[in-house]
Amino acid sequence: MNENAPFFSNKLISWYLENKRELPWRGTKDPYFIWLSEIMLQQTRVAQGMPYYFKFTETFPTVFDLAAASEAEVLKLWQGLGYYSRARNLHTTAKYIAYELNGRFPSTYKDLVALKGVGDYTASAIASICFSLPHAVVDGNVYRVLARVFGITTPINVSKGIKDFKVLAQKLLEESNPGTYNQAIMEFGARFCVPQNPECSRCIFKDECVAYNNGSVKEIPVKLKKVKVKKRFFNYLVFLSPDNTTQLIQRTQKGIWQQLYEFPLVETEKEVSLDVLKKETGFKTLVAGIQLQSVVLYKEDSVIHKLSHQHLYTRFWIVSVSEVKKNRVPISEIRDYPVPVLIQNFISEFSAFTN
Q1: Radius of gyration for the alpha carbons in the chain, expressed in angstroms and rounded
Q2: Beta strand pairing status for 310-321 and 328-330?
Q3: Helix 5-19 with 159-172: angle, nearest 10 deg
Q4: What are phi and psi of 74, to 5 degrees?
Q5: Mean local confidence (pLDDT), 117-144
Q6: Which of 87, 149, 260, 308 could join 78 in a cystine, given CB atoms 3.0 to 4.6 angstroms apart?
């Protein structure tokens, strides 16, 4: 532990004990519930993740219940939370723990980090909170607190930065109470040392904070811009037949929304008119052998769905047909399928599916 550790950890834990939120997973050290909460809160705010935590713990009160569920059930319950690989990995790991480890979670960092979908951060959180092991967590909140207080300008998304922040976090860790310390620094970053407009004048570290005292709070932490956002143009064909059936197709390829269901899709290089859409090979393939009665654009303006590395410009085309021949789904059952939130929003507002 370095010379900064006592002042930092003591102040932080004192602040936490006085100001912490009463969250449902904080009343337990059961690794199943801690694991669930940590997986759900990756890339997700607490307010958004909380309802999903309650749904999962009510539906799957034990790891055996989660393991016994179908993947479709898990994805349906996860629907709207995004980053669906988390749900698939959650299910895979639940089955491994239930059937290979007899329901007992690993109790060492090494074994925890080997679980599918569990990285350094989640393994450190479970190890420290559930088993009092001295492993420091480092997530976006921790990067922000440490970078500002100690004035670190090394980018957080390069190998040197990742290593340096982990080393510092480990040095600052209160080893006699690592679970409380880890929750304290995450809470402080999430609620006080926030990305935009933190109340620095009221901060417990304002006297020591390098960024506050040199006026660089807005510039820290440093993150190099690497990812160029790609624009994609989706055209969904919403088939409707007289016998009240439509068509859903499961996305089995790797990439976004793997294993979720969607309407037949034609991806184009830009927004297209109906005449241009009909000339697309994908469109011709999807309607081959089907008697089209009409094709009407649902709304002129595209729905823009923003993902981390890509923006999806999406339009829905209502395709009236004499019959649906493949992947038939009764309209009365369409809400039973796990779909991306983009599709769910359309289903919720389109009159043919709401009557």
Answers
A1: 24
A2: unpaired
A3: 80
A4: -65, -45
A5: 94
A6: 87
For the segment 180-211, what is each residue's pLDDT rounded down to a tens digit?
999 999 999 999 999 999 989 899 999 999 99
pLDDT value for 128: 95
Structure tokens at 70: 């179908």
Domains (range + CATH), the chain: 5-219 (1.10.340.30), 230-354 (3.90.79.10)
Which region, left, alpha or beta, applies to residue 102 given φ > 0 means left and ψ of -120 to 50 means alpha?
left
For 44-96, write each residue's pLDDT tens digit: 889 999 999 999 999 999 999 999 999 999 999 999 888 889 999 999 999 99
Catalytic residue among 38, 174, 187, 262: 38
For 173-206, give one letter per residue: b (16+ CB within 10 A) or e: bbbeebbbbbbbbbbbbbbbbeeeebebeebbbe
Please report which confidence band the pLDDT of residue 355 belongs to, taking 50, 70 and 90 as the band edges. low
3-state SS, the chain, equals CCCCHHHHHHHHHHHHHHHCCCCHHHHCCCHHHHHHHHHHCCCCCHHHHHHHHHHHHHHCCCHHHHHHCCHHHHHHHHCCCCCCHHHHHHHHHHHHHHHHCCCCCCCCHHHHHCCCCCCHHHHHHHHHHHHCCCCCCCCHHHHHHHHHHHCCCCCCCCHHHHHHHHHHHHHHCCCCCHHHHHHHHHHHHHHCCCCCCCCHHHCCCCCCCHHHHHCCHHHCCCCCCCCCCEEEEEEEEEEECCCCEEECEECCCCCCCCCCEECCEEEECCCCCHHHHHHCHHHHHHHCCCCEEEEEECCCCCEEEECCCEEEEEEEEEEEECCCCCCEEEHHHHHHCCCCHHHHHHHHHCHHHHC
CB 133, CB 109: distance < 8 Å:
yes
Residue 257 gets the label, from left (phi > 0), alpha (psi -120 to 50) or beta, of left
| pLDDT value of residue 256 | 86
**Amino acid, res. 12:** L
Q: Tokens representing 71?
A: 């993947």
Kindly give the pairing relationship between strand 292-297 and strand 310-321: antiparallel
Q: Does residue 112 carry a pLDDT above 90?
A: yes
